[in-house]
Amino acid sequence: MLNRTLGCLLGLLSLTLTVASQLCADDIPKFRTDSSPDKSLPWYQLVDGKFPPANSAHAISGELIQVDHLERRFQIRVDRSDSQQAGLLDLPLESAMLPYGSSYYHGAPAALQDIPLGTHLHGLFYLKDPSDKSPPPTGPDRRVTAEVDFKRCLRLEDDFSYYSRQKQAWRIEAVNFVDKKMTASLLGDDKPIGKPKQFDLMGSTRVRLGDGFGKLDAIAVGQTAQLNITWATLYGPGRVLEIWLDEPSRRLATSLQLERHRDHVRDRGLPGWIDAVDDDAQIVTISFFDGVDPKLFAELSGINEEPHGWPFSKREDDPKAPKGGIAVARECLMTYDPVNDRKGGNILSIDKLPIAVGFSGVRIKVKCCMLLEGHRPGRIVRFYPATWKVNALPREEQFYGRE
User: Fold this and answer.
1) Does one domain contain both 179 and 284?
2) H helices within 178-272, ranges in order?
3) 259 and 296 co-located in one domain
4) What are 183-202's pLDDT values in tens digits?
5) What is the span of the domain harbouring residue 85?
6) pLDDT tens digit sequence for 290-333
7) Cα separation of 20 and 16, whole Å?
8) Do 225 and 242 sit in the same domain of this protein?
9) Do 196 and 151 belong together in one domain?
């Protein structure tokens, strides 16, 4: 009897371990990541209408060398690394921001036009669409970078934003004003990360101190700084474009960029895509993308009882409830004629959901006065809360008439 009981227990334990091992196997990503030991796994391929899983993008850094801010396309000169062949150094990667892709500058959300050419950037990328047969940009002898197929960008950020987000900063170890050299160590939790690096200073290097500018001789050993650089990896770690020498100067840079971002979005609408449409009730469900300051989402609940300028075919059900208008947009987030082609009405609900890759966690339902052709699941839209004044955008930013 004891042996039978022991045998049953051992069998149950074996079954438990088998199930546990299967569950653990299910938890292992079926796609390659930057930290994957198995390099034979395929990279994650994006699925239309779905946000990607966490940690599924490929990190690539480089210098911004070309921008089409209307189509949200850009090129970077990929940083050099030991894994590259000598003939494939310094070649361009052309990519486009995903609809839910976001960019950051000076520690705050930014539009591509906010980031100057020559700025060194850190990016997260996905492979191009399998149907994309467009030729890549080429370098000498028609050579292309090894990263050429990573043509869809999830995140782009300057060094200031990248290191600030990770709570890292540079400690000045030595400065030579004659040779214009500066040695600095990257710190995390007040501990050095890697070896010190020697950067080049320039006569045009912008030194930020407090609420103003400083001269190069304001840089001193022991200071903790943030940098933006250019010519990274070409002739060493890079040339310093800007340096922030204290916390007040860094806070000021971030606050100014944050206000620029808010102005940009208020003029162009909150970006998102349509999750569902109830044709009979004319209710549209929208999930908003991330990379947007939360303060702007808080303005969804504002009340505007004024019907003046309301371009809809009929009045909303409740003038004293939150409302807004939906403008159909393209993959690059460009709208057509938002002053005249917005349709919407009362916001029926504002739901807060878990934040995910590309998703802000904010979802709304809108009762529309009229459904348009572009009001379909998966389509990109911009939403204007009724408290926002909608001005005509510069003509080049309106897609109307280009079809």
Assistant:
1) no
2) 247-268
3) no
4) 999 999 999 999 999 999 99
5) 58-130+144-157
6) 999 999 999 999 988 775 446 666 777 888 899 999 999 999 99
7) 6
8) yes
9) no
